[in-house]
Design goal:
Layout: H1 3-24, H2 28-47, H3 54-70, H4 74-87, H5 92-103
Helix pairs in contact: 1-2, 2-3, 3-4, 3-5, 4-5
Length: 105
C-alpha cells in the first residue's frame, strides 16, 4: 500500500470512530457527515493503490461501500462496487458482501 493510501485509510478509520461516537452521543447529523468523510477517504485510498494490490483494493472497496451505506449515500455504494468489480475478479466473500450492500439499497 502506498503511503498516500495508508494515510487516507488511517484517516478513514479515525473519522469512522468519531462517527460512531457521534451516534452514541445522539448526534446523527454529525455522524452522517463523519461517515461521509470517512467513506470518501476510504474511496480515495482505494484509488491510490497500485494495480497489483487486488486483495487490498477489494477490502477497501467493501469498507468504503459500507461507510457510504452508513451515511445513506447510495450513489457512493454503487460507484465503489462498480469500480471494484471492473478492476479484477474479487474474492468471493468480498463480492458476496458487496452484493448484499447493493441488495439493501
Amino acid at each position: 500500500m502506498t503511503d498516500d493510501a495508508l494515510e487516507l485509510h488511517a484517516l478513514s478509520e479515525r473519522l469512522a470512530l468519531q462517527a460512531r461516537a457521534a451516534l452514541r452521543g445522539s448526534n446523527p447529523d454529525a455522524a452522517l457527515s463523519l461517515f461521509r468523510a470517512a467513506a470518501s477517504a476510504e474511496e480515495a485510498a482505494m484509488h491510490r493503490l497500485e494495480s497489483h494490490c487486488t486483495r487490498t483494493r477489494s477490502a477497501l472497496a467493501l469498507s468504503a461501500a459500507s461507510l457510504f451505506r452508513a451515511c445513506q449515500c447510495l450513489e457512493g455504494v454503487v460507484r465503489v462496487v462498480q469500480f471494484a468489480r471492473a478492476r479484477a475478479p474479487l474474492p468471493g466473500h468480498i463480492d458476496y458482501e458487496l452484493q448484499l450492500l447493493l441488495n439493501g439499497l
